């Protein structure tokens, strides 16, 4: 058995650590690149959302590299996320790949339990008692790595906006993430991350107050730089601190429904969206709207709304944000993303957006 | 009283039955589905971004109806027959309301009836029907004497289909969601073109949804149920029509940027590959800017393929 999983955001660090620590053989798909995206595009159609295309590309590359068991976190209705696994299975089977599939339920119910039981029937036979015994520690290590990874990324986003040389931030972040990936124990994880944080802290700052934006939108697009065209970095290098609305760990905590604080926070956010949306549209739609209200309440300078072209809930959110921006008086940049050659256009849009936020802050724009 | 009910919603059986109810209970109500031709400029909607054309069309119809009616009915369609509608329908009344609030003049004050429609069984149907009728006609409205008419029976639909196909010796399955197939603008005149070439047309809407639902269930497993009603209609129709009607060809008519169609298309192409008898299949993607000539050319080429197969 050789398991594989999508190469997305901090999620892959989590999955890789679990496989490694539990002694389960795995194949890590190559980092998402042009070929990954092209494979996904070629085997789907123009109206399929970008995260599905990229995950499909990841899986094809992993299967080509020898993986035989695909593990993926599932989700539910009403948008397409809940059917990603079903659709990808159809495509891979039609392409003639031989693979087994395991969906980690994103929503825990009886059907999900039965599906899981069925999907793991064969896999369980191949796992040894040692794999099972090591599993709890593996999950703990994976979880700790993911949380640290997100913390490092968060700190890097803050520092990028104020660093005299933002490229130093990228250097410390990349070396920190690489060391984190290699660390094999909880103390080692803490140690390498504290080193990376110390490295980030000693970077010289220019002393200007950075612009602050909230990045909201579809989860994968917010979290994965290859999908969002590195928007966090592009903004950071223009002196903008980006606060992300989504992290993989918060999605897992939400899905497990164990963290009551988080659930309460989500309920409160839903309330914030009510002047605009009176019903849960699905995925992150209402939260994108709510987080814009929150950004206004917290005196952010703007909101960047990222989503894949053809995303149903976020297209709705974009319409709502286009009204809310005038009502609330906070600039919004809505970016439907799909093509890989959007970089230059993005830079132009972002520069104009930064100008608007700066003018607004200096009182030249009302 | 003039009541607006956008024409696009009439493609749903449930809404058509509601319309019959309104006629029966309040004959004085004049229902308007299509905005009257007017010299006034149509209101410009909020940024629609890259929304699919059917949804844009729905929002634009609702907005154009607003200045011409006393009330607008845009129910929040969440679930029908136990299956979900696409997320756009959940936000439809909110987007119409946000647009309305920006209109000049009295149209801004027109009440919007946005009753939540979440129907799995007959009990839900009765409850939601009464809620909506009371929201529209007043809280005193008595429940209609007749039970909510059930969808036409399978037998009735079968007879109607037989009538429809009488005189044609070849048929084409035109698969698509109800508003794509039924709306003359969205279907780009395909039914008329096919009929003019001597083809009878079978659509998912010619069958009882429960039959299509059963056929679609063959591809479900555990939590991985195809949860959109429109998708089940298309998947079920593909299986059902191919098995029972031996069409000369299959056309899947979908909308550019439709999230539901994007996934159904993948499943239909996969099912098509597995068909024992190779029925020609074509996917036609309609969008706001599709030109009739392109559609005619595609159809001509497709019919040539069918002719080639049937005469070889
Ligand atoms: S939220 Fe949008 S991009 Fe994500 S699965 Fe749903 S439709 Fe696709
Ligand atoms: S089902 Fe497709 S065409 Fe219909 S509203 Fe949803 S996205 Fe648009």
Distance between the ends of chain A: 61 Å
* H/I helix tally of chain A: 15
| Backbone shape of chain B | globular
Task: Count structural domains of chain B.
Answer: 2
Chain pair forming the biggest interface: A-B, 53 and 44 residues
Strand content of chain A: 5-15%
Order of helices and strands of chain A: EHHHEHEHHHHEHHEHHHEHEH
Q: How much of the polypeptide of chain B forms β-strand, as a percent range? A: 5-15%
Secondary-structure arrangement, i.e. CATH architecture of the largest domain in chain B: 3-Layer(aba) Sandwich
Summary keywords:
heterodimer, A: Rossmann fold, Rossmann fold, B: 312 residues, alpha/beta, four-stranded parallel sheet, 11 helices, 11 strands, 13% strand, binds iron/sulfur cluster
How would you describe the overall organization of this protein?
The complex is a heterodimer of chains A (366) and B (312). Chain A contains 15 helices and seven strands. Chain A is α/β, with parallel strands linked by helices. Chain A has three domains: 125 residues, Rossmann fold; 68 residues; 157 residues, Rossmann fold. The relative contact order of chain A is 0.11. Chain A has a four-stranded parallel beta sheet with strand order 5-4-6-7, with helices on both faces. In chain A, strands 1-2-3 form a three-stranded parallel beta sheet. Chain A is globular. By secondary structure, chain B is α/β, with parallel strands linked by helices. Chain B folds into two domains: 136 residues, Rossmann fold; 158 residues, Rossmann fold (3-Layer(aba) Sandwich). Chain B is 45% helix and 13% strand. Chain B contains eleven helices and eleven strands. Chain B is globular and about 65 Å long. The N and C termini of chain B lie far apart (61 Å). The interface between A and B is large, with 53 and 44 residues. Bound molecules: iron/sulfur cluster (SF4) (2 copies).
